Fold:
Amino acid sequence: MASVIRAFSTSHVCRLTGLSLRQLTYWDDTAFFSPYYPSENSRSTFSRIYSFEDLVGLRVVAILRNEQKIPLQKLRKIAEQLSIYHSRPWSGLILYVLGKDVFFKEPDTQQVRKTGHPQYQLTTIALDRVTTDMQSKADALRHRREDQIGHLERHRYVVHNAWVIAGTRIPTKTVWRYHQAGYEAASIIQDYPLLTPADIAKAISHERGLARKAS
Structure:
């Protein structure tokens, strides 16, 4: 079975949720929404790594903040209130919107708390639909273009500017270590389903060339 992406960079999160880098940074710095995985370098914007549950939660917050126009200060208070029901409330509770008010389904009783006046229609934040949508978009990240197969690339903010297999975050050094340990291409692909034999051959050739230069 192909592996499922469970860790996302800030650029991935921005692309998948519609949030801006500025929002993610500010929310983390002010403890409104911090990534599940702790950062080794808290001063680096690009070192933040989010879980899939974070991705779903941030999409829900994006709907509330950017589409429903609910003030951030209000969302902070809501998050504090909901934290007694779930450690990751934005991805763990079913939410509803009435005007600028947010309601939730209480896990134990399955009752909607404070539903408001019956003349208004509640807008449901369909968590299952958000989850499915985020999973579909996350899966799309696994698809690589034809021109990336068998090629390498390097970017300033990807794996500390290390050489990686094009279209992935897999360093060539990782493939080289597997090769040195005696792993065949098929075994490496089993651990890294995004890779192809051409990718592995290119990475090994690249690292072998660097080793010769260093000797």
Summary: The domain at 7-140 is CATH 1.10.1660.10 (Multidrug-efflux Transporter Regulator; Chain: A; Domain 2).
